[in-house]
Amino acid sequence: MDPQNIPSAGEVVLPEGRSYTVHFSRFQTVPERMMSLGLQIQNCLLVTDENVGALYQADLEKAFESAGGSFHSIILPPGESTKSPRQLERIYEFALSTGITRSTPVVALGGGVIGDIAGFAAATLLRGLPLVHVPTTLVAQVDSSIGGKTGLNHSTGKNLIGSFYQPRMVCADFDTLRTLSDREWTSGMAEVIKHALILDINFFRWIEEHIDGIVARDYKLVPAFVACAAAIKCEVVSADEFESDHRMILNFGHTFGHALERSLGFKSITHGEAVAIGMKAALHLSVLLGNKIELDRIFSVLSSIPVPSIPDSISIDNLCLSMTTDKKRTALRLRFVVLSGIGKAYVTADVPTESVSEAWRRALAR
After folding, report:
1. pLDDT tens, residue by residue, 45-76
2. What is the pLDDT, as a whole number, of residue 345?
3. With 90 as the cut, is the pLDDT of residue 267 above it?
4. pLDDT digits over 284-302, tens only?
5. What backbone torsions phi and psi does residue 208 show, to the nearest 5 degrees?
6. How much of the chain exceeds pLDDT 90, in percent?
7. How many CB atoms lie within 10 A of CB 352?
8. Which of 16, 33, 207, 284 has a Cα at 20 to 30 A from 156?
9. Is 0.85 surpassed by the pTM of this model?
10. Partner residues linked to 74 by β-bridges
11. CA distances (Å), origin 78, targets 51, 87, 117, 302
């Protein structure tokens, strides 16, 4: 991707007429864009959380009303714990009480948590309702709203209940990123840096050159930072919708990161922070497997993401045990995404257990 030529939209190209556009535009354009796709804008189902709803629901409602539309809204608690069967049941009960039909669009307004649970509700209500994503966080705009992954967490592990269910459209409004906390912003940076590391050395060089401005959220840089990362995700999903092969590289840092999140009870660490630490472990594993990686160069960029210290009570053995429930494992062993160089990722299951433990030790400086 060329950050000097910012795309106005991304495109996920899928068979059977299921392609869709990721628009980089104000969220007030959502009803107009929905109508252009032949979607109804009356009596839609809006799913959001308390924080995002307080910021943007009223403006979105005005946009729908101005276009002759309306929606019924359900407001969920913020946070990872919302991705639960109990909150999903709340959506079901509310949606069915409003008299939805199979033409009723579900509009997901929020970050990755809202997108995941609203997407799963859309996939399963009446065997499938049209889904529209309006992502408001960095992680959601560059990653979770694109590609059709939906799901809930289970006590055994993260995202173990879910489905692939593609949206009809995505509308990413860069201005919503202004209201993120510094921690939310830097956490989201992990997913963008991941995209560059696995596929695009030129994008990584651009991030490297502008890292101070990116951390400071310089809005002259934000459009390129977000749009280029989203375009990479669109390209990967277009090539491998169901993660049978190429798309697995998007899990770089996630097998380690999800284990860390679960070991900490999905508390005290954000998903992006866990992925940042997970990428460090995956980079150490890359080296342990014989790859020649510019670790100092990559760690210099990753160090721009503040992460919490991991208490010694979270043992290496427990982290390794938590990894065994990862949904990306094969029947016999875990699969890891590693790098052979910047912009060159590959998947391997041929990983000695002791190398995984050593990668954890190096990443956590133990």
Report:
1. 999 999 999 999 999 999 999 999 999 999 99
2. 98
3. no
4. 999 999 999 999 999 999 9
5. -55, -45
6. 91
7. 10
8. 284
9. yes
10. 47
11. 7, 11, 12, 27
Give start-end residues of each CATH 1.20.1090.10 domain in the chain. 182-218+252-309+331-364
Q: Which positions are catalytic?
A: 127, 149, 191, 233, 243, 247, 251, 254, 258, 271
Assigned token pair, 31: 């009803």
Neighbours of 250 (CB within 10 A): 24
> What tokens were used for 246?
């190429």
Determine contact, residues 186/196, Cβ cutoff 8 Å.
no
Q: At the top level of CATH, which class does the domain 9-177 belong to? A: alpha beta
3-state secondary structure 111-133: CHHHHHHHHHHHHHHHHCCCEEE
Residues of each domain in the chain carrying CATH 3.40.50.1970: 9-177
Q: Are 115 and 140 in contact (CB under 8 A)?
A: yes
Which residue in this structure is represented by tokens 């409602």? Answer: 61
**CATH code of the domain occupying 182-218+252-309+331-364:** 1.20.1090.10
